[in-house]
Structure formats: structure tokens, C-alpha cells
Amino acid sequence: MESWLFLGVILLIAFIAKNQSLLIATIAVLVLKLIPHSDKFLALLNKQGIKWGVTLISATILVPIATGDIVLKDLLNTLKSPLGWVATICGVLVAVLSSKGVGLINQSPEVTVALVFGTIMGVVFLKGVAAGPVIAAGITYCIMQVIQVVTNH
């Protein structure tokens, strides 16, 4: 019963904040909960959802290349500007942070609660996008590594 209430509160917050992505995601999870014996699918979604989401996002990013809207010349031109270099470096950093974040989530699943809460707060109150839990986990991992180094000396 508590999960229904919690999801209902998130649904209400998403509605008030007019956040369509969070609204759709919450409704989808609520509908899945209504389906008898959906526990196995919810567990599968919990375990594989990030991989599926990353795959979908990756496919979306590749579409302009597939349609010819972005060609190799565009990449080479972009790398001639500071913005292109900064974007490339940030892309590398996000990929590394995400890998560390996935590792942290696998190692300490309890951190997911705080990550989800923080993501919802950022989406609702700061007009963020809910694509960041894995990156947030990566940042958390890095901060924890720094704290560990500092406290061990």
C-alpha cells in the first residue's frame, strides 16, 4: 500500500509541475503494478531498465547520422571550436561517471532511494530532466572517493 501512496504523491507532483516525462513514467509504473503477477516484469525493468534506456537514448542520438543530417565533416568542424572540445571532454566524463554510477548502484542499491528523490526534486523544482540518476550516482561515487581519501589521511 505504501508504494501506491508514494507513487501517487510522485504522480501528483509531476502533474502540478507539468513534467510530462515523470508523469508518463509514473503512470506506466502504476499501470504495470495493476497487472496481476507483474512483479517479475517490474523486477526485470528494475534490473535492465537503465540499459534499455541508454540503448534508446543512444539510438536517438544516432538517428541524425543515419538520416545524413550529421556527417563526419560536421564532427571535424565541431572539433575546431572550444565548444566542440569542451563537449567532447564532457561526453567522455559523463560516460566515465555513468559507468562508476552503475557500479555504485549495483554495489549499494540503497543509494537508489536518495538518487531517485534527488532526481525528482531536480525535475520538479529546477525544471531538470530525469536522465541523471546514473550520472548522479557517478558523481556520488567520485565525491565519496574524495571523502575517503581525505578522511584516511
Notes on the structure:
Keywords: Cell membrane, Membrane, Transmembrane, Transmembrane helix. It comes from Enterococcus hulanensis. It is a multi-pass membrane protein. It is a single chain. The protein has 153 residues and is mostly helical. Helix content is 82%, strand content 0%. It contains seven helices and no strands. It has helices at 2-16, 20-34, 39-66, 72-78, 82-107, 111-126, 133-151. Helix 5 packs across helix 7 and helix 6 (111-126) packs across helix 7. The longest helix has 28 residues, at 39-66. The model has no long low-confidence stretch (mean pLDDT 84).
List the helices and strands and how they pair.
Blueprint lengths: L1 H15 L3 H15 L4 H28 L5 H7 L3 H26 L3 H16 L6 H19 L2
Helix pairs in contact: 1-2, 5-7, 6-7
In short:
The protein has 153 residues and is an all-alpha fold. Helix content is 82%, strand content 0%.
Average pLDDT: 84
The tally of beta strands, per DSSP, is 0
Q: How would you sum up the major sheet?
A: none
Morphology: globular
The rounded Rg comes to 19 Å
Provide the β-strand percentage band.
Answer: under 5%
Residue runs with pLDDT of under 50 for 5 or more positions: none
Task: Report the oligomer.
Answer: single chain
Classification by helices and strands: mainly alpha
Number of helices: 7
Protein name: UPF0756 membrane protein P7D85_11970
InterPro entries: UPF0756_TM
Subcellular location: Cell membrane
Organism: Enterococcus hulanensis
